[in-house]
Amino acid sequence: MGLELYLDLLSQPCRAVYIFAKRNGIPFELRPVELRKGQHLSDAFAQVNPLKKVPALRDGDFTLTESLWVLAAKSLKADPSWLHGASVWRQQWGRISSRRPMRSS
């Protein structure tokens, strides 16, 4: 089984994932989920994503359910060299964000 994408192309995050995959030539099988019909609320889809949200990516027994991470995972398949730049960015962001004071409610 290859890469499966659970998408509703009426959703902007889903379109972003779809366009990215097509543009970069990443092979995938489209699994349409019609939000207007409530298919994302079904028990069958809850097995893919317990949060019942799209987009979702499944690669074998591995599943991603957040659009940013879906794009990141697909980027890694398209061009593994991008990961070095992402880790540098994460390290810099981590240093900046760790210095922020916590707000008390």
From TrEMBL:
Q: What sequence ranges are listed for the domain GST N-terminal?
A: 1-82
Which InterPro entries does the record match to this protein?
Glutathione_S-Trfase_N (IPR004045), GST_N_Theta (IPR040075), GST_Theta (IPR051369), Thioredoxin-like_sf (IPR036249)
Q: Name one Pfam family in it.
A: GST_N
UniProt-listed CDD domains: GST_N_Theta
- Gene3D superfamilies for this protein: Glutaredoxin
Q: Which domain of life is it from?
A: Eukaryota
Name of this protein: Glutathione S-transferase theta-1 isoform X4
Q: Which species expresses this protein natively?
A: Vulpes vulpes
Question: What is this organism's lineage?
Answer: Eukaryota, Metazoa, Chordata, Craniata, Vertebrata
- Which gene holds the coding sequence for this protein? LOC112907532
